[in-house]
Amino acid sequence: MALRFGRVGCLNDTLTRTERSQNMNASSTWPRNRLLLALPSRNLKRLMPDLEHIRCQRPQVLMDADSSLDHIFFPDSGVVSVVAVYADGSVIEMATIGREGCAGVQAILGAKRSSVQLLVQITGTAAKMSRAAFTLAVQSMPSFRNLMDAYAQAFLEQVMVSVGCNDAHSLKQRLARWLLMMRDRSDGDVLPITQDLLAEMLGIQRPTITNAAREFERAGLVERGRRQVTILTKACCECYQLLRARIAFHLPKTYE
Fold first, then answer.
1. If we measure between CA atoms, which residue out of 185, 192, 188, 186 comes closest to residue 244?
2. How many CA atoms lie within 13 A of 160 on its CB side?
3. Please, where are the H alpha helices in 170-254?
4. Which of 115, 137, 160, 111 is nearest to 35 (CA)?
5. pTM of the predicted model as reported, rounded to 2 decimal places
6. 46, 144, 195, 229 - which has most CB atoms within 10 Å?
7. Which residues make beta-bridge pairs with 63?
């Protein structure tokens, strides 16, 4: 596993006109979200008019805590964190979402407000869908409903496994799990994340993260660079493999 700490971009909610044109020319490759791609082609075709291709850039907040749940986001690339926000402004990450899932899945339970913040951690793009269109698709398309039910179960298991890992395992084990989960969701070994971000998401002090990363490097697990993380080998606690197994059980095409 190799750590390199790299800088990420600024806010920009939608794609430029040139990028939209390029996307239209490359429509056969969009969307790339694995949930959407798991749908029968005829059902995905039905959904396409309700999907808006948007850019997601760190540190963009896609949805704030205690705000109206107006949209669901299906990442094509990049990573979105689901975070709890406390009264003093501090945050703790509860889960991560990449192109294996969707952000705002609580809408399937009828939720109309978000109890969490959706924060972009790694820049990418996503398919944005209104809650009204999402609800209609769930009600009228059994394959979509079944897929969202399966993802909701997988998402809940991710949260439960993460809670157990945070309680039972050391910082180094938790850090390794977090990095590998981010790798799975971003589909790449190079993660543009900072040590400050790692400390914030894991709820620990930055010097502690620095020491852990230094130990990873000495052990040949990580290579630290300027503001980015590169993963070279998969060494982690059992929670990571358990999580992958549970997600694959509910969503067999996740890691194909």
1. 185
2. 10
3. 171-186, 195-202, 206-218, 238-250
4. 137
5. 0.84
6. 229
7. 118
Angle between helical axes of 142-168 and 238-250 (0-180°, round to 10): 170
Return the domain boundaries, the chain: 17-137
Provide the 3-class DSSP secondary structure of residue 174: helix
β-partners of residue 119 are 61, 81
Q: Distance between CA 31 and CA 75 in Å, rounded?
A: 9
The set of residues, in sequence order, having a beta carbon less than 8 Å from that of 36 and lying 6+ positions away, is 44, 47, 51, 74, 127
Please write the tens of the pLDDT for every residue from 62-115: 999 999 999 999 999 999 999 999 888 888 889 999 999 999 999 999 999 999
Distances from the Cα of 160 to the Cα of 98, 166, 169, 244, 253, angstroms: 18, 10, 14, 13, 21
Taking domain 17-137, whether its CATH number is 3.40.50.10750 is answered by: no
In angstroms, rounded to a whole number, what is the distance separating the alpha carbons of residues 70 and 246? Answer: 29
How confident is the model over 104-148, as pLDDT tens digits? 999 999 999 999 999 999 999 999 999 999 999 999 999 999 999
Instruction: Name the phi and psi angles at 104, rounded to 5.
Output: 105, 20
Question: How far apart (Å, rounded) are the C-alpha atoms in residues 201 and 171?
Answer: 12
Question: How buried is residue 145: exposed, middle or buried, by Cβ count under 10 Å (0-12/13-18/19+)?
Answer: middle
User: What is the token pair recorded at 241?
Assistant: 């493999």
